[in-house]
Amino acid sequence: MHAAVTLLYIEGRKAQRRRSPLVGQVVTRWHREVHTLVLWPMEWTASAGVARAPLATLYRPALVRMGHDDLMIRGMERCHDRWCAQSWLVDVLDRARAEALLLPDRRVGVVMPSR
Fold this sequence. Notes:
The chain is mostly beta strands. The protein has 1 helix and 7 strands, in the order E-E-E-E-E-E-E-H. The protein has a 6-stranded antiparallel barrel.
């Protein structure tokens, strides 16, 4: 699913509201028998052979709220040597809208986090 993800809680603390969303593809998977959501850059499938870290990972996700075209999801993230709360606001997009959000500063295959 293509999405613009705003990280609301990072490392257990409320994030700054002015952060730009991370734009990419949200994929669900199992990691060491734990359910996760992973946000990959837009072109991650085209460069599957290249070792690359995801833009964000949410462990044990739980749907908190569902709107017309957005979702609020909470879970955990690994920060240093402990687990912290994390919350995502996910705006569901089609591919054309996701690509338009990346312009004009689009780097093919890589979307830099907005930290």
